[in-house]
Amino acid sequence: xxxxxxxxxxxxxxxxxxxxxxxxxxxxxxxxxxxxxxxxxxxxxxxxxxxxxxxxxxxxxxxxxxxxxxxxxxxxxxxxxxxxxxxxxxxxxxxxxxxxxxxxxxxxxxxxxxxxxxxxxxxxxxxxxxxxxxxxxxxxxxxxxxxxxxxxxxxxxxxxxxxxxxxxxxxxxxxxxxxxxxxxxxxxxxx
Length: 191
Ligand SMILES: Cc1cn([C@H]2C[C@H](O)[C@@H](COP(=O)(O)OP(=O)(O)OP(=O)(O)O)O2)c(=O)[nH]c1=O
What we know:
It comes from Brevundimonas albigilva. Belongs to the Maf family. YhdE subfamily. It holds the Pfam family Maf. This protein has a single domain (6-186), classed as Maf protein (Alpha-Beta Complex), CATH 3.90.950. 34% of the residues lie in helices and 26% in strands. The protein contains 6 helices and 7 strands; from the N terminus they run βαβαββαββαβαα. Strands 1, 2, 3, 4, 5, 6 and 7 form a 7-stranded mixed sheet that branches. A hairpin with a 2-residue loop joins strand 3 (67-77) and strand 4. Helix 3 (88-98) packs across helix 4 (133-142). It binds thymidine-5'-triphosphate. Thymidine-5'-triphosphate (TTP) binds at residues 10-12, 14, 31, 36, 71-73, 75, 105, 147-150, 152-155, 172-174.
């Protein structure tokens, strides 16, 4: 039997690069267009899981022969969810909230093969140093925060703000590689 096609249900360039890092090159990139609004009272790990599953299912519905992988990254500080900052002012607000404290990054990853779903959620704790207004303004001016949950990217200049992480660096960037490879192996998919 020939190997099924692998489809990455994501528009995130980071997810493509992270898969490439472990030698996985999807046959197709087919982003899912789903409503990412949190449900009332939904916890960050449940949100990350639900959205990863919804993205994977949406794409599997139109590609039933493929192995589909999808993910979702959710940043939270205390009880607040920090989605993608809409503009510079919101990015500044987010960085002020993250300054000098710990926050959590949950990344859900879901794989669908032959209608069967498997899913994992990775949790990482990130400590950001106390940030001065000048540091925040200089970072926000780079535009690096755009399109990234929480208003920063650990893989860019904001990496210098990160004192410590406990968990998975690639999961903060958008895809927990250990869990992803486990899930793909679990459904019998090999590069
Ligand atoms: C916290 C953090 C997030 N991110 C990115 C990863 C994700 O691309 C993004 C979170 O948004 P997501 O909604 O998880 O993903 P996406 O909209 O980029 O792509 P798609 O829904 O099509 O799969 O934030 C970083 O790149 N670095 C970081 O340090």
